[in-house]
Design a protein that fits this description.
Keywords: Aminotransferase, Pyridoxal phosphate, Transferase. One of its GO terms (molecular function) is kynurenine-oxoglutarate transaminase activity. It comes from Leptotrombidium deliense. Its EC number is 2.6.1.7. Belongs to the class-I pyridoxal-phosphate-dependent aminotransferase family. This protein is of the alpha+beta class. It folds into 2 domains: 106 residues, 3-Layer(aba) Sandwich (Aspartate Aminotransferase, domain 2), CATH 3.40.640; 107 residues, Alpha-Beta Complex (Aspartate Aminotransferase, domain 1). The protein has 8 helices and 6 strands. It is globular.
């Protein structure tokens, strides 16, 4: 989660070089510990040059609905709409209406114990801590996330005890992910998939896990 100082540094560079900002803020309501989500478009002189992308699916735990939105100044949103209408075929009306009602309800109970977004962060932080504890017990070095519901772990110490060299894959993380799925029925994401071909080696000792799961599922993973 970017701090105010980090965002200010980015904002200053954008202003200096007259650059636009496309902010991915889909995890805006899933922030842990004492961290705080700060919107780039709230910084001085940044509203005019920022498009903010949000995910209603992630905000309300209905990712299968595949619905979100972007907002910003009119002069940036108008051309974005032209692109969008030629890429997305449809988003059914009942789902749009349901999300609109959900936002209206959350705004009414914002900063109250009934606020779903507050409950969501608390719930997922507990699940994050559970998975961190599990992975450390099996000798993985964990990068503890400050938000979202994925974490990255270095599996190189653990992998010394297993032979996964026979699995298909260009990098070790692909091979380990396949071995883990076949032999332990656990599914992780090889992070090198997000890297360019020349940089895949940077991520090959890591694996990515999602902890937005039932507690029972996380406990079974430890077994």
């Amino acid at each position: 989660v970017f701090t105010y100082d980090e965002l200010t540094t980015i904002a200053n560079l954008c202003n200096k070089y007259d650059s636009l900002v496309l902010m991915d803020e889909v995890y805006e309501w899933i922030v842990f510990d004492d961290n705080k989500h700060i919107r780039m478009n709230t910084l001085p002189d940044m509203w005019e040059r920022t498009i903010t992308v949000c995910s209603a699916g992630k905000s309300f735990s209905v990712t299968g609905w595949r619905i979100g939105f972007a907002y910003g100044p009119e002069e940036l949103i108008e051309p974005l709409e032209l692109i969008h209408e030629n890429i997305v075929s449809e988003c059914v009306t009942p789902i749009q209406e349901a999300i609109a009602i959900a936002y209206e309800l959350e705004i009414e109970r914002f900063n109250t114990p009934l606020c779903y977004w507050k409950q969501l962060s608390t719930l997922l932080q507990e699940k994050r801590n559970m998975l961190v504890h599990l992975l450390r017990r099996v000798n993985m070095d964990v990068v503890i996330p400050e938000g979202g519901y994925f974490l990255i772990a270095d599996f190189s110490k653990l992998a010394q005890h297993f032979d996964y060299s026979g699995e298909d894959g260009e990098t070790k993380d692909w091979k380990f992910a396949k071995w883990l799925s076949k032999n332990k029925k656990l599914h992780g994401i090889p992070p090198s998939a997000f890297y360019s071909n020349q940089n895949k080696k940077i991520a090959e000792n890591f694996i990515r896990f999602c902890f937005a799961k039932k507690d029972e599922t996380l406990k079974n993973a430890e077994k």
